[in-house]
Amino acid sequence: MADQTGQKPFDQIISEISTALISSDANHTLIHIQDALATLGTYCDTDRCYVFEFAEQVTEMSNTFEWCRTGISPHMDELQNLTDHDLPWFFEQMRTHRVMIVDDVDKLPDEAGDERAEFQREAIYSVICIGMVMGEELIGFVGCDMVDRRRKWTDIDIRRIRLVGDMIANTLQRIYAHEELLNVQRRLETANQLLQSQATLDGLTGIPNRRALDERLHTELRRALRHQRSLSLMMLDIDHFKSFNDRYGHLKGDEALKCVAKILQQQCQRSTEFVARYGGEEFVIIVADTEFDQVVELGNSIVEAIEAECISHQDSDISSHLTASVGLHFERPNVDERSIDEWVQRMVESADKALYAAKMSGRNQLVSSARAAVLSTDRNRH
Ligand SMILES: Nc1nc2c(ncn2[C@@H]2O[C@H](COP(=O)(O)OP(=O)(O)OP(=O)(O)O)[C@@H](O)[C@H]2O)c(=O)[nH]1
Asked: Where is each GGDEF domain found (predicted)?
């Protein structure tokens, strides 16, 4: 209800601002805090109203909101990061009593010399600061200044300032909680991304692992079936890697695996090509939508590039350098009653058989599944 001058009562306006604050977003929240200070300043007939927030366990403070009557100079910009070395008496008052009420700045005690000088610099005659408390913690204060005139602060002034202080403290608590929530959310997203990449990348070589391969193979098969395009799978296995490890040690073995992974990535840079570590000393290359001859060419150039890297392997009976064998399965999948899993299984088994044939027929070479079938028939014949 409005009074005789047509003004709404102070408590009613503050209650309206408080209601608006509860449902407002971050930007409007700041405007509503500013409105609350303006209402406080106007109703209490002060010259300046402001909020300071404490930091570093109430040893530092900054002016974060300020309202000034027309003609009164603002000081917010210069009142940042003030410490208890700058204003020791003031900090002590706030920490101990959580209020500071000064009717006459000239009558401040001797130990408040720094404070008196600061208030006089700002032409403040009377000042009042009421602490804002969150739980048990002093988080800041709401203050009012009288400029160029003295004033005896009344109980009504104190009640009004405290009311606005409580409302702002609750609002700041909500803002802090929201910011903290956003921070936690950001940290969770980063952790999730890391977990995701750790779950799909091989720890030693940094290339996709078997899990990633599985996903990609299913995706590529679906695409190949949909568009009636070819799909190839190459399984690569380092030759005599056990004897390499035995002669040069496991660490050198790890280095060799990293080197092979790097060669594979260099050789397979098209978007239709995908390289993964299958496990142990085995790697897999998926090649989508590429003709058989080109896939064979790519496979052969991988075999050559690995030997050309000249990683010494004195215990190999094929070459004095590390070599690898490749089994290739080329497929033009047709839509039939087979499930994707069955298609995947067929391709992997077939490439694996071809790899076995490559090993059996001398290593350091590529064998395709078609030739592997011929080789196995030959073997049966002998
Ligand atoms: N250094 C190292 N060695 C590995 C790793 N994973 C598997 N190996 C080794 O790879 C070797 C594979 O040996 P085998 O499966 O007997 O095959 P191979 O000696 O390569 O013989 P062929 O495949 O027939 O040419 C084993 O000695 C494994 O310990 C690894 O991450 N690091």
From this structure: 229-371
